[in-house]
Amino acid sequence: MPHLINATPHQIVLLNGLKERILVLEPSGILPRCAVKIEKQPSLMIGLEQSEDIVEISISQSTLGDVVGLPKKQDNTYFIVSLVVAQKAKEYGRDDLLVPDAIRNEKGDIIGCKGFLKP
């Protein structure tokens, strides 16, 4: 039977329907992230609505880099990670990563997941 490791900072609650908890996975302490490269871009000059003042707004471009903090592949083990990490790591051939398929309440808050997605 496969082993699931929660590599997110949040508790993951697998729900059967909208109420019944069938599995709760606590964070493991493993927190893979994508490195981000930030490059300064030309600023924007914007006129304020209530006055004739002009303000300069800084603009930067972000580019996703390598995944850091992700353990090596392990036999019979899936790591549950963010969608960004899973998609970037897929470029390196990682097929052992899952992403929660979230269930949201009427306010849009995540209340659990109905399963997992494989990027």
Account of the 3D structure:
With 119 residues, the protein is mostly beta strands. The protein has one domain. It is built from one helix and eight strands. A hairpin with a 5-residue loop joins strand 7 (97-104) and strand 8 (110-117). The protein is flat.
Key features of this structure:
55% strand, four-stranded mixed beta sheet, 8 strands, 119 residues, mainly beta, two-stranded antiparallel ribbon, single chain, 1 helix
The geometry reads as flat
Can you give the helix content as a percent range? Answer: under 10%
Strand order of the largest sheet: 1-6-7-8
Q: Radius of gyration in whole Å, from Cα?
A: 20 Å
How would you summarize what this structure contains?
The protein has 119 residues and is mainly β. It contains 1 helix and 8 strands, in the order E-E-E-E-E-E-H-E-E. The strands form 3 sheets. The protein has a 4-stranded mixed sheet, covered by helices on one side.
Please give the structural blueprint.
Blueprint: E1 3-6, E2 12-16, E3 20-25, E4 33-47, E5 54-68, E6 77-80, H1 83-90, E7 97-104, E8 110-117
Parallel strand pairs: 1-6, 6-7
Antiparallel strand pairs: 2-3, 4-5, 7-8
